[in-house]
Amino acid sequence: MKEPLLRKGVSVLLINKDKQLLIIRLPEKKGGGWKFPSGGIDKDETSVQRETQEELGTKKMRILAKSNHTHKYLWPKDALKSIDAKYGIPYEGQEWTSFLVEYLGEDSDLIVDGREFVEYLWIKPEELAAYFKFDGQLEYTKKVLSEFDKFLNA
């Protein structure tokens, strides 16, 4: 059986000086749930920097660590035709790598434009269960956070 073709992506776990994580709420047309800033990356991109600037409007950050875990998932079969049309490649899902990133700016530096997300919150890691509802999202996040424990509890 052949492996599914997965689009590469990154998830940015942004922490502030209070060791809180930034989560964003998607617009309803994108599912309306909470997640970390994330997205697909194109070939030869500087993925974490681009994704953070694209979604949050800031470059004020420093990468602290890259996770050894990846999160793989398949898109719904009924979405594959439009995804193929969008990318011109018959992707069947995505594979995410997570990065822990220190935020060096102020809240006033963050841009909420409504296209990528409609609001953001800074929360403690133990509060994630109240917000993360997508399939497998919390379980994957717990694995990643265990890798980043030395940064979050320093």
Overview of the structural elements:
By secondary structure, the chain is an alpha+beta fold. It has a single domain, classed as Nucleoside Triphosphate Pyrophosphohydrolase (Alpha-Beta Complex), CATH 3.90.79. The chain contains 4 helices and 7 strands, in the order ββββαβαββαα. The strands form 2 sheets. Strands 4-1-6-5 form a 4-stranded mixed sheet, sandwiched between helices. A 3-stranded antiparallel sheet has the order 3-2-7, with no helix packed on it. The protein is globular. It starts with 5 loop residues before the first strand and ends with a helix. The mean pLDDT is 86.
Structure, briefly:
It is built from four helices and seven strands, in the order E-E-E-E-H-E-H-E-E-H-H.
Key terms:
Nucleoside Triphosphate Pyrophosphohydrolase, three-stranded antiparallel sheet, globular, 32% strand, alpha+beta
**Helical percentage:** 10-25%
CATH class: Alpha Beta
Amino-to-carboxy terminus distance: 45 Å
Q: Tell me the total number of β-strands.
A: 7
Domain count: 1
Strand order of the largest sheet: 4-1-6-5
Relevant CATH superfamily:
Nucleoside Triphosphate Pyrophosphohydrolase
Mean pLDDT: 86
Series of H and E elements: EEEEHEHEEHH
Structural class based on helices, strands and sheet pairing = alpha+beta
Number of helices: 4
Q: What characteristic shape results from the CA principal axes?
A: globular
Please name the CATH architecture: Alpha-Beta Complex
Rg, Å, rounded = 15 Å
Write the layout of secondary structure elements.
Elements: E1 6-15, E2 21-25, E3 34-35, E4 38-40, H1 47-56, E5 61-74, H2 80-87, E6 93-103, E7 119-123, H3 137-147, H4 149-152
Parallel strand pairs: 1-6
Antiparallel strand pairs: 1-4, 2-3, 2-7, 5-6
